[in-house]
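Morning!

This is the sequence you dropped in the shared folder:
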Amino acid sequence: MPAKGKHRRPKSHRFARSIAVAATGGVALALPLMGAAEAHAATPAAAHSVAQTVAAPAAAKTYAVKAGDTLSKIADEQNVSGGWKKLYSDNRSVIGGDPSVIRPGLKLTIGQKAAAPATQAAAPKAAAATTTGSGYVLPVQGASIGTAYKTAGAMWSSGYHTGVDFVIPTGTPLKAIAAGTVVSAGLDGAYGNEVVIRHADGKYSQYAHMSSLSVSSGQTVTEGQQIGLSGATGNVTGPHLHFEIRSTPSYGSDMDPVAYLRAHGVSL
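The structure's back. Tokens below.
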């Protein structure tokens, strides 16, 4: 018979201790569960702590193409894994079918594949039409025009001036008027040192009397890329740039260069 006034102390309930594992992104955290209520309170805090240890993926960045850029140059400078081919693959919907033609101002995505422009997917013809008149620049900046196209004179074998002359001092940077491929670069008789570039529309631009060349035959160039320096090589009376537009790469297929540039949105 138990003593009066004494009570048997009830045994404390032993709560089963179990282990909860919260895992997020490969990180595990062990939590002692002291009961349903305690576990309920601990779990959200633990999950929050784990979530903070997961690094967010690196965001892609946008690169604006500058004059003189090539995909290879951009890939090297931006450390693109996979080089220019990966950069082109990721941005093909923006660049188009020719990786050698990238216009200054074009936005390239670096780090992930660029989304195709909505206008391109919805109406390819309309999107293409918006580029008409873009992608061309003057062959030299800040120069006045000397001898005009078709000026008559016995000094020219054709009887007239086959291009237009820009009056500039020796050593002035000369630019490709548009993207294209160099078909010739070197000494060419009366023209002295010259460069001839074939453009996407099938026309050719010629730059003559240069003092030095920065490109070689077979090289692709972009709009505004420097191709050399002006000079007075060949048959000249002073330094200037003789500039032609041709329907073929050869002499005798000349077109009005001023009208051609104006038709492509270039003011002069």
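Headline: The longest helix spans residues 36-52.

More detail when I'm at my desk.
O.
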